[in-house]
């Protein structure tokens, strides 16, 4: 049954063809052509045009926000509201009652049942901002949602827009002529583990899960911090350099086990050092794990605030130790929020890493491989900026060294890129092996099965003639191949003198 409605018409003094502005509200005046159906008849009201403009701007901003707002299953809504509250507080002059009205509507549209908590969050961020506490801005909100929220430009304060325009204003490039450039004292690369770790260097290390990359890099980090050699890489001056190891995935207790305590199957790094009469430099090993962070959450390195956190921490370590730390980021997938295949998402990250390199830092980031395992996951645009691209794989049956099969972990080291040392002795494929009981590492040359048999005999003190005689009639045991293996073993430092 239809309710009777009150008649309504245009003002009698309206001229023919004159345009009439009607404010559409939740009372729903529906206009179709020249006819009108008035669902709920209300009298026109007088309002300040600026109020309408403010509503329109909020509609633009929140309509865009709604499209990219995280769903409830993602577990990211709390973080999103913190950033939204900070952005509204620090960069807009929108009245609080209007903010709360639109936030409440956002909650209703997205099925969020924690409306009171969300509204309180918006009010708390405003209070913290007024107390002088730093707040997230629109850039951080955009980065968190992985979208450029252009609609929020409509509600920014005028001075915020002006600052952005000033920041992006072109100022020209600084330059030197060739004579000036030649005599300028630029910082020179300084090797901490020759030639694999140097200051002013970016390295990518990628490997599949379970290969042992974190274990290897933790041992390497400890060697850098404690002033020791690691595997066949030499610390030329026994310099102790602080490290910042950012672990974005592994449980903190697992890091403790690998670093200090060990377990029934493997020794910790400190225990391995004690067996060799070495001392682990605890003060120079700085660990940032998920369990230590607020809400057990790292700000993404694809966001400005996440990158700034790394820089602030590195500078704090430098202030304490007097030295720039070597930075390990383990791993890049856990520490970023991006579409890895999109080159654009890598560009800003790589620009930041390049800036750290020019500031004198070494940065190693760990990554995962593609499904084929041949390359690192994601766009290859990142490989253009790095100095070293290091691949770790588990040996197959043909390359596995049987004598180190039990209670050992073996991994093949391969270099796909190395600015300084590609196609040299340093970049050859090798097998790194750790004895899990003692924590001792050795490096073996890549040999096939027959060559390994020859190598075993040579190491036992057999002469080349005795090796040839022992392998008589067997494929690959020729004199030429025996001497080839001897040459490899000498070059790798496995043997010092050629056997008689």
Concise account of the structure shown:
The chain is an alpha/beta fold and 500 residues long. It has helices spanning 49-68, 77-91, 96-109, 115-130, 138-145, 158-167, 178-183, 213-226, 252-261, 269-275, 304-321, 343-358, 449-459, 464-470, 479-491; strands spanning 29-32, 35-38, 191-193, 197-198, 201-207, 243-247, 285-289, 326-330, 362-367, 388-393, 408-418, 430-435, 441-445.
Give an overview in words.
It is a single chain. By secondary structure, the protein is α/β, with parallel strands linked by helices. The chain folds into 3 domains: 54-161; 191-445, Rossmann fold (3-Layer(aba) Sandwich); 449-491. Helices cover 37% and strands 14% of the residues. It has helices spanning 49-68, 77-91, 96-109, 115-130, 138-145, 158-167, 178-183, 213-226, 252-261, 269-275, 304-321, 343-358, 449-459, 464-470, 479-491, and strands at residues 29-32, 35-38, 191-193, 197-198, 201-207, 243-247, 285-289, 326-330, 362-367, 388-393, 408-418, 430-435, 441-445. The strands form 3 sheets. It has a 9-stranded mixed beta sheet, with helices on both faces. Strands 1-2 form a two-stranded antiparallel ribbon. Helix 2 packs across helix 4 and helix 13 packs across helix 15. The protein is elongated, with a radius of gyration of 32 Å.
């Amino acid at each position: 049954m239809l309710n009777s409605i009150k008649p309504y018409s245009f003002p009698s003094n309206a001229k023919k063809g004159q345009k009439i502005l009607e404010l559409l509200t939740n009372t729903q005046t529906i206009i179709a052509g020249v006819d009108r159906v008035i669902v709920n008849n209300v009298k026109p009201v007088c309002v300040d045009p600026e109020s309408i403009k403010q509503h329109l701007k909020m509609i633009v901003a929140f309509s865009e926000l709604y499209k990219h707002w995280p769903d409830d299953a993602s577990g990211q809504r709390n973080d999103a509201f913190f950033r939204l509250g900070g952005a509204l507080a620090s960069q807009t002059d929108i009245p609080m009652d209007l903010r709360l009205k639109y936030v409440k509507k956002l909650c209703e549209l997205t099925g969020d049942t924690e409306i009171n908590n969300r509204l309180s969050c918006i009010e708390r961020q405003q209070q913290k901002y007024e107390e002088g506490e730093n707040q997230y801005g629109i850039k951080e909100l955009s980065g968190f949602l992985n979208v450029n929220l252009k609609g929020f430009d409509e509600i920014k304060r005028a001075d915020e827009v002006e600052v952005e325009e000033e920041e992006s204003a072109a100022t020209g490039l600084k330059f030197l002529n060739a004579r000036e450039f030649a005599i300028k004292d630029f910082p020179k690369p300084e090797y901490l583990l020759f030639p694999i770790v140097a200051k002013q260097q970016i390295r990518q290390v990628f490997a599949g899960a379970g290969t042992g990359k974190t274990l290897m890099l933790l041992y390497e980090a400890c060697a850098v911090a404690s002033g020791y050699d690691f595997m066949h890489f030499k610390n030329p001056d026994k310099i102790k350099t602080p490290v910042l190891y950012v672990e974005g995935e592994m449980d903190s207790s697992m890091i403790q086990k690998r670093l200090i305590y060990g377990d029934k199957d493997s020794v910790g790094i400190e225990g391995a050092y004690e067996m060799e009469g070495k001392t682990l430099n605890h003060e120079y090993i700085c660990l940032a794990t998920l369990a230590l962070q607020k809400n057990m959450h790292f700000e993404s390195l694809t966001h400005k605030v996440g990158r700034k956190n790394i820089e602030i921490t590195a500078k704090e370590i430098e202030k304490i130790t007097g030295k720039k730390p070597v930075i390990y980021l383990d791993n890049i997938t856990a520490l970023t929020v991006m579409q890895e295949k999109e080159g654009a998402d890598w560009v800003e990250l790589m620009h930041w890493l390049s800036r750290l390199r020019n500031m004198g830092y070494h940065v190693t980031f760990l990554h995962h491989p593609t499904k084929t395992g041949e390359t690192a996951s994601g766009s290859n645009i990142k490989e253009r900026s790095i100095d070293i691209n290091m691949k770790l794989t588990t040996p197959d049956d043909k390359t596995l060294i049987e004598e180190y099969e039990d209670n050992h972990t073996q991994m093949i080291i391969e270099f796909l890129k190395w600015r300084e040392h590609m196609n040299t002795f340093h970049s050859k494929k090798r097998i790194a092996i750790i004895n899990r009981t003692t924590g001792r590492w050795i490096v073996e040359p890549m040999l096939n099965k027959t060559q390994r048999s020859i190598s075993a005999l040579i190491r036992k003190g057999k002469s080349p003639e005795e090796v040839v005689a022992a392998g008589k009639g067997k494929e690959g045991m020729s004199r030429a191949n025996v001497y080839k293996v001897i040459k490899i073993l000498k070059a790798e430092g496995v043997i010092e003198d050629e056997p008689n």
